[in-house]
Amino acid sequence: MQTIEEIEQEIIDEFSIYDDWMDKYAVIIEQGNALEPLDEKYKTPANIIEGCQSRVWLICDYRDGRLWFQAESDAIIVKGLLALVLRVFNGRTPDEIIGSELRFLKEIGLTEHLSPTRSNGLLAVIKQIRFYAIAYKAKAEQQQ
């Protein structure tokens, strides 16, 4: 399995071939369209990420010491951003998630090209993913 850093570099390389932000947005939308839809039963208030302008649902499953996420949004750009973040974090251990820096967001220019509300929403998703990692790590340590 690739490391978080290797996946981030892969994403950076994929975006580096585009100079125009319209092309980069097209790639983000394409990623979102490829994201597996979230089952309607998970689209509950408990799974909504607060702080997002659009509606975003995130669920987490912990199996064999690794975290697996599913997410969906009603906004196409946000759905693409979710796909990128999940690509980096899916199948990771809590320690890998907690220790990651997510440099790809800055490297591909997302931090400067997203509106403040989208940026805040993306940060809220990442914060929730880290919260899951911390919670599952604590739970695993209690069971030892």
- CATH structural architecture: Alpha-Beta Complex
Q: How helix-rich are the residues, as a percent range?
A: 55-70%
CATH class: Alpha Beta
Share of residues in strands: 5-15%
In one word, what is the shape? globular
As for the number of domains, it is 1
Stretches where pLDDT is under 50 for at least 5 consecutive residues are none
> What is the overall number of helices?
7
Report the end-to-end length measured between terminal Cα atoms. Answer: 26 Å
Mean pLDDT across residues: 94
CATH topology, what is it called?
Sufe protein. Chain: A
Largest sheet: 2 strands, antiparallel
Q: How many strands in all?
A: 2
Query: What structural category characterises the helix and strand content?
Result: mainly alpha
Helix-strand topology string:
HHEEHHHHH
Question: Features of this protein?
Answer:
about 140 residues, mainly alpha, Sufe protein. Chain: A, two-stranded antiparallel sheet, 7 helices, globular
Q: What this model shows, in words?
A:
There is one protein chain. The protein is mainly alpha-helical and 144 residues long. It is built from 7 helices and 2 strands; from the N terminus they run H-H-E-E-H-H-H-H-H. It has one domain (4-143): Sufe protein. Chain: A (Alpha-Beta Complex). Helix content is 57%, strand content 11%. The protein has a two-stranded antiparallel sheet with strand order 1-2. It is globular and about 50 Å long. The protein starts with a helix and ends with a helix.
